[in-house]
């Protein structure tokens, strides 16, 4: 970014802050700067660090343990090779994510992209492509945008990793995952996603799937299963938040 452009942007930002007072996207308190989340809310966020399951990314309670696959993942290995969430899905993160999904909470996308960059930086392999989890056409029409696509675009903009938006598609309607018990979720999504890209070959490539929340991991699992048919070297997955209460 040129200095001139940066100065102009700062002036415009300050003017906007005066004209349109900014509020915290979690608690609604008035903000004195251009942050999206107030300091109190930011301090409440619980970050997921080591030790954690090296496959599903769930944090371990003991801080002295080393990262390793958890019993659940050893029992039934997911289709993705690894998954990492940035934070735990609880207050105040759930409030911010609610806005992201159901209303105009898009201005927090930059904050989340910054969190994702940290996870990308921790990986030993470099991603060749970012692939957002797709929505069905019907749901996309109702919501008007897919938050995972917007997120992947922002991460791509910051990291330079190319994003493939229409390559992985949801090819059939499914019952919303939130309405189903854990054991039904996998069945519900079986065969729901397919690789529809003819120009790009995933063989031996490293791909990172992008989504907002990890609950049982069924959606990412179904997406990774569809991608694995293309013989990539690795399918990783990243989400903003991990929901442990499921
Ligand atoms: Zn707040
Ligand atoms: Zn695990």
Would you kindly provide a written description of the structure presented here, covering whatever features stand out?
The protein is of the alpha/beta class and 246 residues long. It folds into two domains: 41 residues, no CATH class; 198 residues, Rossmann fold (3-Layer(aba) Sandwich). It is 37% helix and 14% strand. It has nine helices and six strands; from the N terminus they run αααβααβααβαββαβ. The strands form two sheets. A four-stranded parallel sheet has the order 1-6-5-2. Strands 3-4 form a two-stranded antiparallel ribbon. Helix 9 links the parallel strand 5 and strand 6. Bound molecules: zinc ion (2 copies). The site of one zinc ion has 8 residues, from helix 2.
What is the topology?
Blueprint: H1 3-19, H2 39-44, H3 71-75, E1 82-88, H4 93-102, H5 109-122, E2 129-132, H6 137-143, H7 147-159, E3 168-170, H8 182-189, E4 193-195, E5 206-214, H9 218-228, E6 234-242
Parallel strand pairs: 1-6, 2-5, 5-6
Antiparallel strand pairs: 3-4
Helix pairs in contact: 5-7
Bound molecules: zinc ion (ZN) (2 copies).
One zinc ion (ZN) binds at residues 53, 55-56, 58, 69-70, 72-73.
Low-pLDDT segments:
none
- Please report the first level of CATH classification, the CATH class of the largest domain: Alpha Beta
Counting copies of identical and different chains, the oligomeric state is single chain
Q: Report the order of strands and helices.
A: HHHEHHEHHEHEEHE
Secondary structure tally: strands: 6
From the coordinates shown, what is the CATH architecture of the largest domain?
3-Layer(aba) Sandwich
Remind me, CATH topology of the largest domain? Rossmann fold
Q: What is the mean predicted local confidence, pLDDT?
A: 88
| Residue fraction in strands | 5-15%
End-to-end C-alpha gap:
43 Å
Helix share bin: 25-40%
Count of folded domains: 2
Which class of secondary structure composition applies to the elements?
alpha/beta
Largest sheet: 4 strands, parallel
In DSSP terms (H or I, runs of 4 or more residues), the helix count works out at: 9
- Give the names of the bound compounds: zinc ion
């Amino acid at each position: 970014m040129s200095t001139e452009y940066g100065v102009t942007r700062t002036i415009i930002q300050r003017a906007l802050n005066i004209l349109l007072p900014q509020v915290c996207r979690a608690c609604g308190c008035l903000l004195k700067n251009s942050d999206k989340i107030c300091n109190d809310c930011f301090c409440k966020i619980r970050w997921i660090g080591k030790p954690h399951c090296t496959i599903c990314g769930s944090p371990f309670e003991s801080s002295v343990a080393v990262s390793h696959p958890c019993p659940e993942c050893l029992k039934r290995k997911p289709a993705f090779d690894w998954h990492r969430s940035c934070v735990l899905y609880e207050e105040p993160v759930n409030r911010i994510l609610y806005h992201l999904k159901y209303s105009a909470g898009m201005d927090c996308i930059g904050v989340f992209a910054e969190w994702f960059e940290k996870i990308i930086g921790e990986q030993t392999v470099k991603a060749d492509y970012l692939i957002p989890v797709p929505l069905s056409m019907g749901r996309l029409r109702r919501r008007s945008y897919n938050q995972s696509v917007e997120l992947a675009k922002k991460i791509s903009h910051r990291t330079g990793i190319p994003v493939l938006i229409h390559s992985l598609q949801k090819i059939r309607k499914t019952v919303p995952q939130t309405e189903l018990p854990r054991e039904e979720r996998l069945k519900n999504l079986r065969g729901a996603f397919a690789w529809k890209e003819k120009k790009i070959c995933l063989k031996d490539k490293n791909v990172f799937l992008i989504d907002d929340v990890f609950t049982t991991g069924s959606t990412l699992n179904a997406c990774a299963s569809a991608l694995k048919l293309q013989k990539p070297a690795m399918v990783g997955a990243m989400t903003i938040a991990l929901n442990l209460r499921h």
